[in-house]
């Protein structure tokens, strides 16, 4: 511990070296609060896991000094890790209505701790916690109810932006003016911790109305069925799509569990109140194709999604044919390009017209582009700029921009760095070695757990099972049994395995083997030799497991 | 067989539904020739293989009717599959000098068939083979000695473009004028089979001089060491880099086997003859950093490449530090985005300046953009346009462009389609079901081989080995042995496995087990039950292998 109680500290747990896993700690007067606790997705599939989690050990070690979790909004990369750590969280959680509504559904689906205390925040709420005061500041993003936090302490105020853009979603009744941000600076802001997602994108991010218009123009002239895929939590987009369906005389069908969950949560908290009834999927075949608008999950090419199923003509109810149109009202999250391309190519193969945001204005981002970042710096005028929420490339670009905005101190944080804010120049006091975690076999384990190494090795090499039965004196009492899985099915495999068995038998003719060396040494000897033979015959080094049974 | 001997047929074996694996067959008078035989790379890593190959079975089945292979240029996606099928190829291979020089080196490295007959083609060579006449037409690309082929028959001429661009590489003394293409059309061209790679890119592809200038402007002001990574076979780029090194007073170091192989091949055929001597890598540390220019392979983020090693500070000789610059003089091949990003982020993490073709003009493509395609259609004026070399999206865009150019017939081919060209309207006569192959365990096998299914299942679930020894009457004579690999290392695993062993023991107390059911049924019963328990305790369904040994 290189800090004292009165230090105001910022400690990024995740999200400062990758897209996703956002989790940021603040310390003051020996107490800690956390903003967000998100997941990320592996960009390689040779790990055999589907979710990445931030390191929770340090947070857990804080015990009663850890006072609360504040959620900026309901996206997976901000709330997704909560169900995995639910039984280790002993403090209350705060979030706006839609965020909490989504979180509740996720906790329920994962059958996790219902004892969590979930508090609903309203705009401008002030929560006093230890020596922190956390104020909820309205913002706009691609999900309902997003907020920034103004975290006040006696050592200075921090503006934690969360994910934001300046253009409001009119159809969610978002309503704030830029004076809100200007007035924050009245008392002086010590540090701004800010979204870097679009720090490489010039200009401004347009409003949702831009996507609405682009979608409407695209849909209105189509003759066949239209399917639009978008992010399930983008309720503003879904409202746009529903309105476009109404204006173009199409009925709405919704496919996909995540979409239905988000729509349900939106209804609960007062959005989507007066929407027309959603059609039953069974009605797809009885309505004229020109009167159908389907909304489906799967814009990232997820193999188990509704969209992927439809692209393979494998859905029970929905099928697209030549003359129909598929619209991707979404962006490609880096890492998903191939999966998306596969789904898109299947539609193209079937003669379906494909429209993406590269063809028409059918999507807008939820993050600030460079001009908006510059504007925000002019409003908030922080003494310290701390770009987060991005890879090194995003954070570097954002830091350069903050420098150009004449922000006196610009920090490029890394996960695990303990950064003291209340000194003349912000200083890294220490660095925690945080490990990315994964959820596997019902538990959270570090990504470098041995099981992944052996599984990955097996993916490339297959595995071999050898059983050897010997009597009390170490003599073989049946032929060694050897089988392989996933190495090769070449014709010569059976003969090869027989040769291996004979070879193992010959080992036991050697006196050394008979009780003179340990069982472990025998097994190792067999493994080593048989692996060599596999290498020679099949250019493979399978995982070999030897069962030596003495009777 | 739905065709007659006199049919002029086009049959894409690979490359018409993906990037890579280019291989295109032509038939006339009961004889076949093949243009190119390339590989592709898997875009998913959960297969445990690193190379994809086109289906060779049909080609093999042609026997003596298969007369020859013609190579347009030396890129992996055009020649890379030859070493894998070398022992099945019984016909001569033709290619230009650099292509054959590269192929020879690849065949040598893979220890394959040196009996292959490799013929060197010059520009304007005419090869008569069966009733085909194949003429070599000079073109330009991102590798030395690329050619198009004019394939003439009594039923009409086909222009097979290969990979091309219109702007020549001056520094390779490429020299052809557009009249060459215009004159081809004098006798009328039946069909043009043409590169679709950049069919979504507007405008024209600039000449190599554009990249030269951009690289020079970028390098000249740098104070530290500069490392440039590019495609190893891009000899024109390498010449540019060597010249820039000379002009900026830097010595050249070359890192990476593929680069050295390509430079060696280029020297053999007369390129790179008078280049300054390459420095020994050991000299890296004795030269001032401002006098160093390193060229390295690894622009696609390949984990085993020189560049990846350097980014991890793991190279014996070369290391980059703050103040140095890394330049990616290359494009991102779709599917490699994440791997590239990882390498780039490591450099950024170490404070090294990163420059890509998004920042500066440090790369040009080797493929024709839309304006060049339009120009080529105006030269060749084919009756039939056949876009190849791309995914469905590329081929669709190229086909639309050909339509807009008023080409009377536009075909969007799919791998395996047998397309008759010599009829009023080109017609698909038949479709072969070609399977993508992979190279695994020393053999070429279909991608849907069972071994990959079991390996992938194991990647996600781990595996379990059970050995059970019973006497002649079916009574257990030692406790069942059960071990797991890669499932979980939770604390309770040992107890769980002991419980499993006891459970299996209890099965044998059941009379049914004692010789009343077959060994296979016993093994299945054990598997089924133990898998259920694993599912309950670890949310995993491991692959289970049971050895039942009777003594």
Note down, in words, how this protein is organized:
- Two copies of one chain form a homodimer.
- With 551 residues, chain A is of the alpha/beta class.
- Chain A folds into three domains: 9-203 and 365-440, Ribonuclease Z/Hydroxyacylglutathione hydrolase-like (Metallo-beta-lactamase, Chain A, 4-Layer Sandwich); 208-355, 3-Layer(aba) Sandwich (Rossmann fold); 450-550, Roll (Ubiquitin-like (UB roll)).
- In chain A, strands 7-6-5-3-2-1-20-21 form an eight-stranded mixed beta sheet. A seven-stranded mixed beta sheet of chain A has the order 8-9-10-11-12-18-19.
- In chain A, α4 packs across α8 (257-268), α6 (208-220) runs parallel beside α7 and α14 (493-507) packs antiparallel against α15.
- Chain A is globular.
- The two termini of chain A are 57 Å apart.
- Chains A and B meet through α10, α12, α13, β24 and β25 of A and α10, α12, α13, β24 and β25 of B.
What is the element layout, followed by pairings?
The structure is a homodimer of 551-residue chains.
Chain A: E1 9-14, E2 23-28, E3 31-35, E4 52-53, H1 57-61, E5 66-70, H2 76-79, H3 82-85, E6 93-96, H4 97-109, E7 118-121, E8 126-129, E9 132-138, E10 147-153, E11 156-160, H5 178-184, E12 191-195, H6 208-220, E13 226-229, H7 235-247, E14 251-255, H8 257-268, E15 292-296, H9 306-311, E16 325-328, H10 337-349, E17 353-355, H11 370-380, E18 384-388, H12 392-404, E19 409-410, E20 417-420, E21 427-431, E22 437-440, E23 443-446, H13 450-461, E24 463-470, E25 481-485, H14 493-507, H15 519-538, E26 543-550
Parallel strand pairs in A: 3-5, 5-6, 6-7, 11-12, 12-18, 13-15, 13-16, 14-15, 16-17, 18-19, 24-26
Antiparallel strand pairs in A: 1-2, 1-20, 2-3, 4-22, 8-9, 9-10, 10-11, 20-21, 22-23, 24-25
Helix pairs in contact in A: 4-8, 5-11, 6-7, 14-15
């Amino acid at each position: 511990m290189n800090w004292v109680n009165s230090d105001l500290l910022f400690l990024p747990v995740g999200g400062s070296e990758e897209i996703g896993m956002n989790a940021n700690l603040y310390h003051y007067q020996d107490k800690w609060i956390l903003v967000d606790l998100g997941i990320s997705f592996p960009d390689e599939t040779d790990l055999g896991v589907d979710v990445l989690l931030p390191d929770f050990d340090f947070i857990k070690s804080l015990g009663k000094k850890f006072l609360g979790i504040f959620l900026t909004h309901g996206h997976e990369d901000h709330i997704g890790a909560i169900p995995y750590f639910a039984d280790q969280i002993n403090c209350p959680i705060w979030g706006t209505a839609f965020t909490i509504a989504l979180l509740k559904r996720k906790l329920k689906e994962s059958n996790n701790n219902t004892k969590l205390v979930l508090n609903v925040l309203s705009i401008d709420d002030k929560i006093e916690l230890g020596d922190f005061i956390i104020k909820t500041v309205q913002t706009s993003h691609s999900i309902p109810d997003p907020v920034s936090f103004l975290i006040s302490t006696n050592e200075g105020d921090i503006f934690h932006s969360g994910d934001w853009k300046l253009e409001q979603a009119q159809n969610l009744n978002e309503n704030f003016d830029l004076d809100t941000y200007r007035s924050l600076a009245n008392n002086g802001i010590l540090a701004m911790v800010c979204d870097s997602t679009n720090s490489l994108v010039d200009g401004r991010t347009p409003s949702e109305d831009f996507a609405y218009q682009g979608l409407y123009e695209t849909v209105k002239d189509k003759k066949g069925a239209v399917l639009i895929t978008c992010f399930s939590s983008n309720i503003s987009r879904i409202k746009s799509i529903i309105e476009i369906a109404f204006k173009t005389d199409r009925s709405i069908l919704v496919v996909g569990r995540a979409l239905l969950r988000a729509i349900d949560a939106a209804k609960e908290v007062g959005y989507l109140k007066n929407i027309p009834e959603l059609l039953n999927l069974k009605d797809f075949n009885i309505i004229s194709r020109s009167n159908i608008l389907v909304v489906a999950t799967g814009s990232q090419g997820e193999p188990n999604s509704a969209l992927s199923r439809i692209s393979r003509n494998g859905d029970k109810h929905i099928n697209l044919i030549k003359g129909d149109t598929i619209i991707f009202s979404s962006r490609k999250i880096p890492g998903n390009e191939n999966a998306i391309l596969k789904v898109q190519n299947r539609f193209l193969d079937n003669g379906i017209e494909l429209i993406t945001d590269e063809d028409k204005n059918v999507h807008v981002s939820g993050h600030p582009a460079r001009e908006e970042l510059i504007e925000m710096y002019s409003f908030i005028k922080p003494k310290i700029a701390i770009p987060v929420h991005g890879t090194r490339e995003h954070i570097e670009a954002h830091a350069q921009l903050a420098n150009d905005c004449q922000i006196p101190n610009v920090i490029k944080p890394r996960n695990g760095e303990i950064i003291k804010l209340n000194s003349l120049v912000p200083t890294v006091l220490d660095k925690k070695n945080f490990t990315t975690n994964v959820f596997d076999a019902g538990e959270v384990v570090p990504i470098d757990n041995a099981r992944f190494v052996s599984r990955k090795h097996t993916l490339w090499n297959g595995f071999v099972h050898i059983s050897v039965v010997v009597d009390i004196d170490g003599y073989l009492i049946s032929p060694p049994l050897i089988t392989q899985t996933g190495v090769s099915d070449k014709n010569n495999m059976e003969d090869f395995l027989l040769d291996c068995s004979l070879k193992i038998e010959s080992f036991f003719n050697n006196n050394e083997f008979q009780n003179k060396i340990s069982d472990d040494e025998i097994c190792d000897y067999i493994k080593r030799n048989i692996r060599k033979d596999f290498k020679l015959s099949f250019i493979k080094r399978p995982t070999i497991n030897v069962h030596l049974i003495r009777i």
